[in-house]
Write a structure and sequence with these properties.
single chain; about 350 residues; alpha/beta; 10 helices; 15 strands; globular
């Protein structure tokens, strides 16, 4: 099969013909229909993700059609499915308690084992996969990837966001824009923060009531002024020190900060305003991915038309365009995300 392989950090992925994947006994092989390109892929591409090594085939936001099923697989040949990026075992105490995104036996195509920057991908633990609704295109389904599912779980599973609450979203890349769209659908009042005016305009078109450019404003002070005391919930969607502290400092007393952005590499440790947490009696939540059992709640929201995630998709690309998309994450990016839909060019 054709695949885009990481051979050296910070260099173009190499398009190669590699062996087709072997079907797991407890899983399936998918023909990849679409795969998103995510900032998490960039962390691996630049060498900041500790588990991504040269030789890796990236790609963890995928939608595909089952072409082979193992003897213990849940799905059958011909099924079109969408995948969470965390594949949980289903039997450990974490899984049995419903917290599959913390499974100690999790499998991670695209990070630890071959991912979906390729024509085909092997998926173990296929009970994590959800059938693709007929009304949802593979492109949009792949765009849900880790960004929309993570945002959904951050807002509903962690922060327990309520309608009419103020929510500040720091960073309007894939996860941030997803948070804006979903928070608006839940009836919250959304403030979007970024340093790119084009992205702020895009966020305003898709649910942000207020937008703030962090280069021009004291973000925390402005949010407290606008909301009459601070946001109820703040989503940090970049994983860097400046936005983490802005997120904490913009909250009202008893506010909830959710750490959605991935702090890794040189940002894994940072100086955090603990006084803001202490003085404000704040709740600080970490979040990563989404338990697979929650997929139907998100898909039904999209299927019934209560939320439209298509504005998230900025462009469809060929496999050969993956490196250019990864390089773009070196600086501020334009609105929306890229999805690979052509695996032969």
């Amino acid at each position: 099969m054709r695949a885009a392989v990481l051979r050296a950090y910070n260099e173009d992925l190499v398009l190669e013909d590699v062996a087709d994947p072997t079907c797991p006994e407890d899983g399936v092989v998918l023909k990849v229909l679409a795969c998103g390109v995510c900032r998490s892929d960039w962390h691996g591409w630049v060498g900041e993700h500790p588990r991504v090594l040269p030789g890796q085939i990236g790609g963890h936001e995928y939608c595909g059609e089952v072409i082979e099923a193992g003897p213990r697989a849940t799905h059958k040949v011909g099924d079109k499915v969408v995948a969470p990026f965390i594949l949980a075992c289903g039997t450990c105490p974490s899984c049995q308690s419903g917290a599959q995104n913390t499974c100690p036996n999790q499998r991670l195509p695209g990070f630890v084992e071959p991912g979906a920057f390729a024509e085909y991908v092997a998926v173990p633990f296929d009970h994590n996969l959800s059938l693709l609704p007929e009304t949802l295109s593979p492109t949009v389904a792949a765009g849900l990837g880790c960004r929309v599912t993570t945002a959904w779980h951050a807002l509903t599973g962690r922060a327990a966001l309520q309608g009419s609450e103020w929510v500040a979203v720091h960073g309007t890349g894939g996860i941030g824009l997803s948070s804006v769209i979903l928070a608006n659908a839940l009836g919250a009042r959304v403030i979007a923060v970024d340093v790119v005016d084009e992205k702020l305009t895009h966020a305003a078109q898709h649910g942000a009531e207020v937008t703030l450019n962090a280069r021009d404003d004291d973000v925390a002070a402005r949010i407290k002024e606008i909301t009459g005391g601070g946001a109820h919930v703040s989503i940090e969607a970049l994983g860097i020190q400046d936005t983490v502290n802005a997120s904490l400092e913009c909250l009202r007393p008893l506010g909830r900060h959710v750490q959605v952005g991935l702090p890794t590499g040189h940002t894994a440790r940072m100086d955090v305003n603990m006084s803001a947490i202490y003085q404000g009696n704040l709740a600080v939540y970490g979040t990563r991915g989404m338990p697979s059992w929650r997929y139907p709640s998100l898909l039904s929201l999209i299927e019934t038309g209560r939320v439209d995630m298509s504005p998230l998709i900025a462009r469809e690309i060929g496999l050969s365009g993956t490196s250019e998309e990864l390089r773009a994450f070196n600086g501020p990016t334009p609105p929306g995300v890229a999805v690979i839909t052509d695996f032969l060019s």
